[in-house]
Design brief:
The complex is a heterodimer.
Chain A: H1 9-14, E1 21-24, H2 26-31, H3 33-48, E2 53-54, H4 65-69, H5 73-89, E3 94-97, H6 100-109, E4 118-121, H7 122-131, E5 146-149, H8 156-159, H9 163-171, E6 175-177, H10 207-218, E7 222-225, H11 228-240, E8 248-251, H12 252-259
Parallel strand pairs in A: 1-2, 1-3, 3-4, 5-6, 5-7, 7-8
Chain B: H1 2-29, H2 41-53, H3 62-91, H4 102-130, H5 145-176, H6 191-194, H7 196-201, H8 206-230, H9 238-247, H10 261-271, H11 297-305, H12 311-315, H13 317-320, H14 327-347, H15 365-368, H16 376-380, H17 387-400, H18 407-419
The chains are: A alpha/beta, B mainly alpha.
Chain lengths: 262, 439
């Protein structure tokens, strides 16, 4: 595909332009090496769809989600107010993000602090783009593959988004196989609620290993994720069972970008 | 006549104590902080009808769903018969509603079928709990009273239903023999083959049958009065609170944690010391939940509504992997502490006298910090109880009042403060990924 440069809101403003949509990258998407690949896939898809998008770049700060879940409301609100002020300065109306935690916080928790934006998760936007023909998946990179989808808690139970990611997988001509626990009954990867940043309490097992057992049972070629934190947890789970040769963990955006040859 | 007076006195006493204890529970629930849940009445009624009346969330586990539905239908419908028992008891009539004729006979027959269903379902429930020993009934928090409570409820329901069937069996034999006072009424599809043959084989006299009928009648109604008065002390109180509790369900996205308005003003002042303060603004004195009185009344209603079924705990990722956290225990602890606070208030003439205890004495840090905030417990609860909210509120107290977070969480906080990310990366590197899109 044609080379392009990801622009920041500041770049656009300097050029006297206005982005249609803000791509909220999030901390994992910005700094985590594995998650950066998801970020790049999303950027390429947005570009391919001809969407005029921009990022906040160095002006983006953590949404505050892990602080809020860990009980530090002060820190959460400080970061939230800072972000809201930044976005309001750029007159942001619409946001897309590849992180369900950022999505949940921006969508549900920013309005009370004065930040009212239309917030989409990347799976919803990509599904819309596919349905409207803005992007198309060029035949069958995943045809016949067994793909199972791991529901992120913050998309699924938290925001009732179960179908968009599954519809995308079906558009890939892949065989969507469900794990024994899925959708509203899906098992957490173990990262949420700030668990990502601390050691687990004493117990019999790590949560992501328990989830990896479900994945192995479904015997997929690919485990599709829609969250950078799930990505880390699920990959560790697969590695724990020495199955990284058989099972790939990919974000929905990566699957689509791959099928589009981006 | 003496029997009628005795009946009225007993009903009066039973109703008085029941009302008194309901009043106490109401008082205890209202010790919670106010929260406005008066919006969207239409959706709230709909939720209650679906979730409480329709029991839609029970269906996730088909076997207990069917068993529970039988007991639930029995509870609601057989209580129509209790209305007749009350009329008969007060006026000394026998089957006062039998003038309804065909409908009455069908109803009594249907109640017998239900009563038998309840009896069988309770035997299944007992065996699931004590013979099959289902995992969710073996948790440590059920040791002691909780276990005994569950057994009591099932056992009482079985003997109440047995009394009903015995009463009907004696009644129909007396009716057939044309005994005085026992007019032809009702139909008895169960007791006629289950109990009557026993009575016939034992060749009971009319006098004996009248004694059995009366004894079973009194046993049944007094049993109901005792059971009613046991409810306020039992997990079985859910038969009442499930309805209001689902009415007051959270209607927002489950992922949304409430905004702490008390913090918002402080943060505004911190970011801009010249920010205007709203009139009558008082700086908050404490943050988060230290004790039950810091929870909302809805959290406290949740605690009294919980019937300790353990679906929350068996769906909790942390509990499934052997951690100490059990959402059911969070609800049980909240109720236990609230009861303790209520008793303290009763013992001290209406005011709470500090007892050097709070909810954190019941719920440990190890439990609080294990939560994934994944909403599995909230999703699993058949009557929309939210244990997760209590956990987060207690974390707020730990962090904002005591600065007592695990060390790794504290370093996450300082990274977020200094680098605007939970990890120790330079904020200036945030957009580095854009430099090579194909790497």
């Amino acid at each position: 595909m044609s080379e392009f440069r990801v622009r920041t809101m500041a770049d656009m403003m300097a050029a006297g332009e206005q982005a249609d949509i803000l791509f909220w990258v999030g901390c994992a998407g910005s700094f985590d090496e594995r998650a950066q690949k998801i970020t790049k896939a999303v950027a390429k898809i947005l570009h391919a769809a001809g969407i005029k998008f921009a990022i906040l770049g160095t002006e983006e700060a953590c949404t505050g989600d892990p602080a809020k879940r860990a009980g530090n409301e002060f820190l959460f609100q400080m970061l939230a107010m800072q972000n809201i002020a930044t976005m309001q300065a750029y007159e942001v109306k619409k946001i897309v993000t590849a992180c369900p935690h950022c999505f949940n916080t921006l969508k549900n928790e920013y309005p009370e602090l004065g930040g009212n934006f239309e917030v989409l998760h990347h799976t919803t936007l990509i599904n819309q783009l596919l349905s409207s023909g803005k992007i198309s998946i060029k035949g069958g990179a995943f045809k016949g593959q067994r793909i199972t989808y791991h529901d992120s808690c913050y998309l699924g139970r938290a925001n009732d988004i179960y179908e968009a990611p599954r519809e995308i997988i079906e558009k890939l001509d892949a065989a969507l196989v469900e794990m024994k626990r899925s959708k509203a009954n899906g098992l957490c990867c173990g990262a949420g609620g700030a668990q990502m940043f601390k050691e687990a309490e004493n117990g019999k097992k790590e949560v992501n290993i328990e989830r990896a057992d479900d994945m192995l049972e479904a015997a997929p070629n690919v485990v599709a994720a829609a969250c950078p934190f799930c990505m880390t947890m699920l990959r560790d789970g697969v590695k724990h069972h020495n199955k990284e040769q058989d099972i790939e963990v990919k974000d929905i955006a990566e699957l689509v970008a791959n099928a589009m040859d981006l | 006549m003496i029997a009628q007076i005795l009946f009225v006195v007993i009903s009066g006493i039973a109703t008085y104590f029941f009302a008194k204890n309901l009043g106490k529970i109401r008082r205890n629930i209202l010790l919670g902080k106010d929260i406005d849940l008066s919006d969207n009445a239409a959706l709230r009624w709909k939720t209650m009808l679906k979730v409480a009346f329709g029991q839609t969330k029970m269906a996730a586990r088909p076997v207990p769903f069917v068993l529970h539905f039988i007991v639930y239908a029995g509870f609601i419908l057989i209580n129509i018969e209790v209305l007749e028992i009350l009329i008969d008891g007060i006026f000394g009539t026998h089957r006062a509603l039998s003038f309804l004729g065909g409908i009455y006979n069908v109803a009594i027959g249907f109640f017998e079928v239900l009563a038998f269903g309840v009896l069988v379902a309770c035997i299944f429930f007992l065996s699931r709990r004590y013979i099959l020993k289902l995992a969710r009934f073996q948790s440590p928090e059920l040791k002691g009273f909780a276990n005994q409570d569950a057994a009591t409820i099932l056992f009482v329901e079985i003997i109440l239903m047995a009394a009903l069937l015995k009463m009907n069996a004696a009644d129909q034999l007396l009716q057939a023999r044309g005994a005085e006072h026992y007019t032809q009424a009702g139909s008895f599809p169960i007791s006629s083959w289950l109990v009557v043959p026993i009575f016939e084989a034992l060749q009971f006299s009319d006098g004996m049958l009248v004694f059995i009928e009366r004894a079973a009648w009194w046993f049944h109604i007094i049993g109901i009065f005792i059971f009613m008065n046991y409810l306020p002390f039992s997990k079985h109180f859910h038969v009442i609170l499930a309805f209001p509790n689902t009415y007051y369900s959270n209607l927002k996205a489950k992922g949304e944690l409430n905004n702490m308005a008390s913090v918002t003003q402080e943060v505004k002042l911190m970011l801009d010391p010249s920010a205007p303060t709203p009139e009558g603004y008082q700086a908050p004195t404490s943050f988060g939940v230290k004790d039950v009185t810091d929870l909302t009344w809805k959290n406290l209603m949740d605690a009294y509504s919980c019937t300790e079924c353990g679906r929350c705990t068996s769906n909790c990722p942390q509990n499934q992997t052997g951690k100490l956290l059990s959402p059911r225990k969070i609800m049980m602890d909240t109720r236990d502490r609230l009861e303790e606070v209520g008793k303290n208030i009763d013992a001290n003439g209406g005011t709470f006298v500090a007892d050097n205890k709070n909810l954190h004495n019941y719920i440990s840090e190890e439990e609080l910090w294990a939560c994934n905030t994944c909403n599995a417990c909230v999703e699993a609860c058949p009557i929309n109880i939210n244990p997760m909210e209590i956990i987060v509120e207690m974390r707020r107290y730990k962090v904002m009042e005591e600065s007592a977070a695990p060390a790794s969480i504290n370093s996450m906080f300082s990274n977020m403060e200094n680098n605007q990310a939970p990890w120790q990366f330079s904020p200036m590197d945030r957009a580095n990924w854009t430099q090579d899109l194909n790497a």
